[in-house]
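Sharing a chain and its predicted structure for anyone who wants a worked example. Both blocks are below, sequence first, tokens second.
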Amino acid sequence: MNNNPLSNLTASQLHQAAAIKDKIDALERDLSQILSGAAPKAKGATPKRKRAKAKATNKQAKATKKQAKPKKTKRTMSPAARKKLSQAAKARWAKAKKQGKNRI
């Protein structure tokens, strides 16, 4: 036994209910602005359209952000740096050998 009235609605009915709810919310905001003495906002896009527009601009921003990133180049060591590291490793191994260790 399900007492929730929303569980018996179809998807299209739920979409219609959501659209009506958005309209009611917009009308309530207009009414509260009128009653508070503030000038009502100019008619613009509905909240649903604003969300869709914001989503589209967000996707565009992400796309341009991905394109704007320069590719990372593979780092290579200079011959001098390789030589320095090699000498340091050889010095560690020589020290370990003197102490009779097989491992560092």
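Comments welcome. The mean pLDDT is 80.
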